[in-house]
Design goal:
This protein is mainly beta. 4% of the residues lie in helices and 46% in strands. A 4-stranded antiparallel sheet has the order 1-2-3-4, with no helix packed on it. Strands 5-6-7-8 form a 4-stranded antiparallel sheet, with no helix packed on it. The chain is globular and about 50 Å long.
Length: 300
Amino acid sequence: MSGEREPAIKDRTYTVAEVDGAYFVARQSGLYRLASSNGAARNLYQGWQPEAEIATLDIAMSPGFSNDGLILTGINGGVARSEDGGATWTALAMRMPAPLVTCLALSPGFASDRRVLAGSYEDGMFLSDDAGQSWAAFNFGLFDHNIFCLALSPEFLADGLVMAGTSSGVYRSANGGRLWEDLTMPAGDEAVLSLAFSPEYADDRTILAGTESHGLLRSGDDGLTWEPFYRPAGAVNAIVCLPNVAGLAIQVDDSVLAYETGDGSWRQLAAADVHVAATSEDGRALLLGMADGGVRRVAI
């Protein structure tokens, strides 16, 4: 499997990230690096577990990442960690039974505080203050331990604000992920699959939440109250804010829609076969992880 891209839909893509023109793709079968959007995929786990398929649900890379930088990945059993750009790996078990880590988030001040948050399926939230080398569970006030997504405030160093989307709604932490409160949502106990802070959060205090069946919700008061924003027919699996073009896009099931701020309308960017959507490295385009294993770069 190493060196070639899978030809069909067999291999689910969960996360896509762009660094220095290369693409890192987390899939059901492992973590891959593509030198270009349609180039051959190299499995970065090949030298670590050559015979195993390691489902990888999320990727976090150190700020200013280079080919020899820090990569953390969420896997079944905890977090995999590489300090050399994926050449060698260490599996870090968090506790027994080992959790399935679904999402990762680095502190905006990671260079100094070394903080990483990890959400898991069924086992709640874990924090690390040493760049992912050791972990502790922090589930005080977190009554739903099925975490699907995380978002940290752009002003995290000052306000410590973290939002977590769970199978029953959104939880909020104002102290960096140590203590949680359950927020009241207009959709009730609805699964929240995606979260995003507005690029202008310092001024508008806006947070967006994508739900399984009640569309896109918006808060203008740091997540304390919410209102419906847009209700497409499907699950809002991803929210992508592009600060450098003042754009917004959402992934609805396997299609992608873009929001036109001028007239408040939505237009379709991709009609089908999208597994995941993310922002490009320069914040000017969308990255779409496609069903064929490739990556598309789409401007709004």
